[in-house]
Known about the structure:
single chain, 8-stranded parallel beta barrel, 12% strand, 13 helices
Amino acid sequence: MAPTSTPQTPFGRVLTAMVTPFTADGALDLDGAQRLAAHLVDAGNDGLIINGTTGESPTTSDAEKADLVRAVVEAVGDRAHVVAGAGTNNTQHSVELARAAERVGAHGLLLVTPYYNKPPQEGLYQHFTAVADATALPVMLYDIPGRSGVPINTETLVRLAEHPRIVANKDAKGDLGRASWAIARSGLAWYSGDDMLNLPLLSVGAVGFVSVVGHIVTPELRAMVEAFVAGDVQKALEIHQKLLPVFTGMFRTQGVMTTKAALTLQGRPAGPLRAPMVELNAEEYEQLKIDLAAGGVQL
């Protein structure tokens, strides 16, 4: 049974887009995934995104994706929302991934904008609607035009919000003005998908975060959102400013690369990366340690 939710916070407030641990020889590490998931929920996450980009979804098979969701649901599904990434640039494939995620117990779906083939807004509408129609699971859209090549326009978000199962949006558009209008007009639960903008997005109506830095600073992120919701904006600002070196350091290069390095430094399950991702070089590794230390992270 999925954890409780409200229409305002259908997936909770603090979620981490979890990396996919691999063994030394590059195989899926399901035991490591369960241990990492438990650690992240213990740290204060309301939910985990599995099989997102930070989970190296481009390089995991459909069978691995299903196995991973099943394992994480088994580990933490009674106390956290397990949201499965099912978005691709092929609508039928996305439908299949969504149905597979539902079969293995996912509580919700994350659907990224179809990437590279650059469909028009009507194509986006039909794509998201088809996947939302395919299961009984609640859906979080994922708007990240810097990677997908196409934004989900505000008018399209408003149309999609009419679907009974499309309940949230993960915003990595980096445009507070457009976010403000879309939040006001769509009524979707809004989640920051850009850690540097977590606090600014709260100020225009976001309810929480889907974070990468949550792998290492979940307690601080939870304290920030709880302070903001309680009206203590000054405390929220102080936490935001304390975390600036972490936000900067974790995205000096590709996020999964730095995240797995940081987890390894802390002795947590992570393992190697799958090509075309590569390990940090020596200079990047040392810079990451400097950045994390500047943000108060214990290594």
